[in-house]
Each structure stands twice: as structure tokens, then as C-alpha cells.
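FIELD: query
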Amino acid sequence: MTEDRPLIVVLGASGLVGSAVTAALARRPVRLRAVARRPSVVPRGLAEVEVRTADLTVAGEVGAVVDGASAVFHLIQYGGGWRAVDDDPAGSERVNVGVMAELVEVAGGIGGAEPPLVLYAGAASQIGVPPDRPIDGREPDRPETIYDRQKLAAETILKEATADRAVRGITLRLPTVFGLGPSATVRDRGVVMSMMRRALAGEPITMWHDGTVRRDVVHVDDIAEAFLAALDHPDGLVGGHWPIGAGRGDRLGDVFREIAGIVAVRTGRPAVPVVSVTPPAHSPVTDFRSVTIDSSRFRSITGWRPRVPLSQAMDRAIAALADGG
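FIELD: result
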């Protein structure tokens, strides 16, 4: 290995966002350590790659995998989304909060000219019920779900460690992300990909509302580029949280109807219907509120902006699913 290359560690390298970030980093002349519970497949590139499998909830594992790192991407989360967290709050807390607590503790002892950079995947939903205007990162945090409370707790740990100079932490609060990571072994269970699967199976696309609810929908490749932009431009970002989004606020009814149309063209079948259904009793209030994200502050610092048009991104994802993705 070339020891003068920086060591960059990706925690959660086999997940949706993690695999996309790992693939992007593999194109750079760095030492790259891809860490996940499942073996990660890293595309060939300029990076010197080390793949490690680890259960980061086991004592000592975090320290072992981040040893020597100049930057750590913390992209792991408890699988299954907020409903799985509700079913196992203690187990999810060990992943969503406990790993961050151990990370900042061991990172303080890594040494080097400056503390290691830690880039964390937060969630735009951490604010709770969104305001009737675009989110820009200056809203008070009043999380509604256990999942969002855990994400906020981890972010708070990172901010406190940054204030203590143990690490240099940056949180990107992510929007509705969709796509297929280049080598993800974890299935994207998000609403956009779920409805693509329904349409490909010939099943109606269902909504818990009338379709006018808006979401900031961004392809995973653009999210990976946002993380790399933060890696490249940490000054002005360290210590803060930054909402990431396209700024469009796409109506979900329009998104779903476009999905139905793309699938119809690809399969030669009539477009499946897009219908409203009665929401389950457990659905949080945030599912019925629109979200648009203003990322202008992050963009002004990093120069990042989404590059993949939504229609093209959906067509690409549907093609991959149709081919067995």
C-alpha cells in the first residue's frame, strides 16, 4: 500500500447510499476501507481497496475498522426503516446511536495533524412536522418517530465531539433517496422503489393521500456526490447539519404516475392505476405533510447540485429492476 495516501473508511459500504459512496471513492487515488456486515463489492478504480466484514455493535469493532483513518463515512442504520425501529427500539438504538458514540470515542485517539473527518447520514425528517416552506436547516428539531429521535441523538453526539475537537463532524440530512447502489446488498425499501416494484408486478400503485403531498426525491448517485463534495469542502461545514435535496418538491401522485407510464412503455402492458387507499393507523403525521428542501447554503460552500434528471433516474432504476436488480 502507498502509505502517503489518505485512508478513508466507509461504514455501511454494502447499503444503498454506502455502496454508491464507496463506488465514487474507488475512482480516487486513496486507500479505501469498505466496512459492512456483508462483504462489499467495490468497483475497480484508482483506490487501494480493503474490504472488511464486521458487526459494529460488538465492543472494539469500531475502533479496529477506523484505525488510521483521516475520514470516516458513517452510513449505517438499522435495517427496515422507522417501522422496524418501532418494533425493536433497543436493538435499533445500539446501531443508530451506539455506533456513533463508540466512533467519536475511538476517533479522538486516532491522532494525526487534525482530528478525523466524520461524515454522517442524517435524515431531513429529524425536524418532525415540516413547516409550510422549504427546509433549510435552521428549523427547530422536534422529531416525531423513534427513528428520527435516534438519528438526532447520534447527530448530537457528533456535534458535541466536534465541539470538543475529538472529530470534525458533518451531517448531511438526506431527502427521499432512491435507486440501486452499484453493489448494494441491502434492498431499497423506500417508497419510490417499492412502487416501481409494484408497477413491474402489475399491481396498483397506492398512496395514503390524494397525491398532492410533495417529497424532495433525489437519486442515490447525486447523494453520493454530495458526500464527496462535503469531503472536499469541509471548511464551513464542520459542526453543522446540512439538508440535501433537489429543491423541487415533487408531487408524489405525479411521480407515481410517471413510474406507471415508464413501466408501461417498458413492459408493453397498460399502465397500472395509481389509487388512494386508507392509511394504516400507525402512519405518522409526517407522512401527510409536504417536504421541499433548500440546499442553497450547502451548494454555496461545495458547488454541489443534483445532476441526474428525475425522469432519467426513474427510467434507469426501473430498467435495473426489470433486469433482476
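FIELD: remark
The CA atoms of residues 278 and 292 lie 24 Å apart.
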